[in-house]
Design brief:
848 residues, alpha+beta, 7 domains, 25 helices, extended
């Protein structure tokens, strides 16, 4: 069975696509221009269109409307044409192509009709009419079947003779009346009914009439000699004769009965998709309604709009309900910053190793437990025995592979712990049997629950003397982790990483839980994974630790992770071996990215063009978001922004060996809050401390903190020249403590008031414009640097400083209780006998 495109059928039948679609729609076949249909549907369309030409076969037009000026002799045209060919064969070659068509309302005009003068005498016309009458008589004798047409022609000639002699007219019927029309009818009758001699006389008479215009005769002769161009595109001058068929095409108001054009019914939709807003005109076109109808409906709803205004989705939905059209929102557009997700066939998935995340509080033995599982010594390599960034390892147990992720446990690495929970299948919660549940333990439980990851509790340090596993179970039960032996569903295994006991039971439980989950992945798809860690290696460039989650990552693949992209130059597994491929649930180090990606970014394998385009759009989007955040102002924080003009800032440049450590440092530093000092990380990056970092710190008046990195030679020289403080650390706690100490040094000094003594004014002495208060020290002491508060009747009337302190004529530094002295105050003279001086000093208090 053949298949045919709708537009091909339309082209073959000479119809428009919409006409063919409408015919199929009437037969309950819904198609579009590019749709295919079978032979039966094509035959249906062909039959529908081939019936139309049969409709015009009705009774001849002259029988329907004999009163019209233009005679219609369609039924007798074929017979007349046959008689004309017998009687006037010399004129057959002058017949235009239009005369051959079997159209019922057409006859021919001679070639020279345009050269006849418009104002010919009435005698000439009468003579021509007499010839017409003779011709009509000959027609009745020689051509009996055409008798009815001859009568109609005589009636038409009579009507023509009654017109004005010198002016042709065009009645509403569209037939040109006058000498030209008379001549045209004359030539038509001669061609059909007269002999060759009569035709020769007629043309001779026409040439004599045309000679009255002088030089135009030669022009007409040249025009007649032009080669004939037949068909629809023949020009006016190229035709040998202007047929009435040609003139009728230019007269839309002719007596020709035109078939009424059947317009296809407007198919109005019952369901349309609209975005957040839409133009009124576009919405009217969408629902196949007039714009005025839509505006009227909006007006009835109380919405005054014009044709070019927009309406929102809710308004469009209301208007659609008025016209019985369901308005639904457009599907969300594809994010250009996202890689299109590849369809994953579940039938092609194969089992993959489980990914296990080891989580828990700091120093509860997570890395030691993993060390016991791997039978290696990892803890000694970590600074201070604390895991600084995620380690990804693969272990073989009973012929099955298990992937472990070791996340840091202390508070600074919250983001990294959450990232580990997002990519894992099972979470191992390590709790020390002697310490019990700690703050980071609760946080790890929350991360695992948020990621909907099953939890297996490993109660570690069972070899310690103070181990109490029942107490640990009680604490975990309060956090909704009910042990299995208590009737819950949480597996709890007592282990000792130091003595390597309970390890096999723990691994068996891991494989049991993983088997229940039926973990599978399709290795035949483009690679998809997560960046576990990223760093800038001095010799290898950007290095990213990747956990492949779906598909296969191969050397040479083009990858994109965040705003970083590139080709995979090399891959190294957890044992330091170079590999060519990484299957699902395989952790590898990837080399070849153009920059260090962010930990937690999604890695995808795609073509180079897409990778570059998506990376550029992601970078532009991130910059736009940063600009919006910095420019955003609200009434809630405007007062705070005003106050920030007096706020001190401690600017810091952070450099570290891996991206995860930078995130942890920045989070911890920004948590250090104080009413007067604000910590600002002006720059952070992966790699050693460079000269450009020192220049940036100098310009921003910042200090540099390096974590597991050192400044190069140029950076050290620049730091000495620019007087920039560079601090390097290996343990994160030391860095945080030093920053806290720096913040305390920037705090404004605090003072407290210390009362030194009380002095009574007993006599006032005025000497050369000085007012001296003769005083007696009641208690304590008074010094020449003391501050004084004048109290009169329990009310403080002045606070100031002592200008001078004397005993008799000598200046002294202090006077103790029980002695008299003379005191002058700075810029205050309103003293009275009996005033009390409270003498005090302000002492600085160390910042806490």
């Amino acid at each position: 069975m053949g298949k045919h495109r709708v537009y091909e059928i339309a082209k073959e039948l000479g119809k428009t696509n919409q006409e063919v679609i409408d015919v199929l729609a009437k037969n309950n076949i819904q198609v579009k221009s590019l749709s295919t249909v079978d032979d039966a549907a094509k035959d249906m369309v062909v039959r529908a269109f081939t019936k139309k030409p049969v409709q015009p076969e009705k009774k001849p037009a002259p029988q329907q409307k004999p009163q019209n000026n233009a005679p219609k002799a369609a039924p007798a045209k074929a017979d007349n044409k046959a008689n004309a060919q017998k009687q006037a064969k010399p004129q057959v070659q002058n017949q235009p192509k239009a005369a051959v068509n079997n159209k019922p309302q057409q006859d021919n005009r001679p070639k020279n009709q345009g050269s006849k003068p418009m104002n010919a005498h009435n005698d000439q016309r009468n003579q021509n009419q007499n010839k017409n009458n003779n011709n009509n008589q000959n027609q009745r004798k020689n051509n009996q079947p055409a008798q009815q047409q001859g009568k109609g022609n005589q009636q038409g000639q009579h009507n023509k003779n009654s017109n004005k002699p010198n002016r042709p007219q065009r009645p509403q019927g569209g037939i040109f009346i006058g000498p030209r029309g008379q001549q045209a009818g004359q030539g038509s009758q001669q061609n059909r009914n007269n002999s060759a001699q009569q035709s020769h006389n007629r043309f001779d008479n026409q040439n004599r009439n045309s000679s009255q215009q002088g030089g135009k005769q030669q022009f007409n002769k040249k025009r007649n000699d032009k080669p004939q161009i037949k068909g629809q595109y023949a020009s006016r001058d190229s035709r040998n004769m202007h047929s009435r068929d040609h003139m009728m095409k230019k007269r839309p108001n002719s007596n020709k009965q035109q078939q009424p054009v059947q317009q296809a019914p407007v198919v109005r939709p019952t369901r349309v998709e609209v975005g957040e807003s839409i133009n009124v005109k576009d919405f009217a076109n969408l629902i196949k309604r007039e714009v005025n109808e839509v505006i009227k409906s909006l007006f009835m709803l109380g919405v005054m709009v014009t044709i070019n205004q927009d309406i929102d989705f809710d308004t469009a939905e209301l208007v659609g309900s008025e016209f019985d059209v369901e308005v639904v929102p457009l599907p969300p557009e594809e994010d250009p910053t996202e890689i299109p997700e590849v369809e994953d066939d579940p039938a092609k998935r194969v089992p993959r190793p489980p990914v296990i995340t080891v989580m828990g509080h700091v120093d509860h033995g997570k890395t030691s437990l993993l060390d016991a599982i791997r039978k290696s010594n990892v803890t000694s390599r970590e600074a201070g025995g604390i895991t600084q960034h995620i380690g990804a390892y693969m272990v073989n147990y009973q012929g099955k592979k298990i992937v472990f992720l070791d996340t840091p446990g202390h508070e600074a690495f919250t983001a990294m712990r959450a990232r580990g929970a997002q990519v894992t299948d099972v979470a191992i919660l390590v709790v020390a049997a002697d310490d019990g549940v700690m703050p980071q333990t609760v946080e790890a439980i929350n991360h695992a629950k948020a990621a909907k990851v099953p939890i297996i509790v490993a109660i570690n340090k069972m070899d310690r003397p103070g181990a109490n596993p029942d107490h640990v179970k009680q604490q975990l039960a309060e956090l909704e982790l009910i042990p299995e032996d208590w009737g819950g569903d949480t597996i709890m295994v007592p282990v000792s990483a130091h003595q390597k006991t309970g390890i096999s039971e723990l691994l068996e439980m891991i494989l049991l839980v993983a088997e229940m989950q039926e973990l599978k992945a399709n290795p035949n798809l483009p690679a998809h994974g997560t960046i576990i860690e990223a760093q800038l290696d001095k010799g290898r460039g950007p290095v990213a630790t990747v956990l492949v989650q779906r598909g296969t990552l191969s050397v040479g693949d083009t990858i994109i992770a965040g705003t970083a992209y590139g080709k995979v130059r090399a891959m190294i597994n957890d044992r330091g071996e170079k590999v060519k491929k990484a299957l699902p649930s395989t952790p590898v180090e990837v080399l070849g990215l153009n920059e260090v990606p962010m930990a937690g970014d999604i890695l995808d394998s795609t073509d180079e063009k897409t990778a570059r385009s998506v990376a550029e759009k992601r970078l532009a989007k991130r910059r736009s978001e940063e600009m919006q955040q910095t420019a955003k102002v609200s009434l809630d924080d405007i007062f705070q922004r005003i106050q920030e003009g007096e706020l001190k800032e401690l600017n810091i440049v952070v450099k570290a060996d891996v991206q995860g450590t930078i995130e942890a440092l920045k989070a911890s530093l920004t948590k250090i809050k104080n009413d007067e000092v604000k910590v600002v990380v002006v720059h952070s990056g992966v790699g050693s401390i460079t000269e450009s970092d020192v220049m940036l710190a100098s310009a921003a008046n910042a200090l540099i903190i390096g974590f597991n990195v050192r400044p190069d030679a140029n950076a050290r020289k620049a730091a000495e020249t620019e007087k920039v403080d560079v601090r390097t650390y290996r343990v994160i706690y030391d860095a945080i403590n030093d920053v806290e100490a720096a913040i305390k040094g920037m705090l404004a000094p605090k003072f407290k008031e210390v009362i030194q003594g009380r002095v009574e004014v007993r006599q006032l002495i005025t000497i050369s414009k000085l007012l001296i208060a003769g005083c007696y020290v009641l208690e304590g002491k008074v010094t020449n640097s003391s501050k004084v508060r004048v109290v009169r009747d329990g009310i403080v009337v002045h606070e100031g400083e002592i200008d001078s302190l004397r005993r008799f004529k000598d200046d002294v530094k202090e006077v103790v209780a029980g002695f008299e002295c003379g005191i002058t105050l700075d810029k205050f003279r309103d003293l009275k006998e009996g005033d009390i001086f409270e003498v005090y000093s302000m002492e600085e208090v160390a910042a806490e």
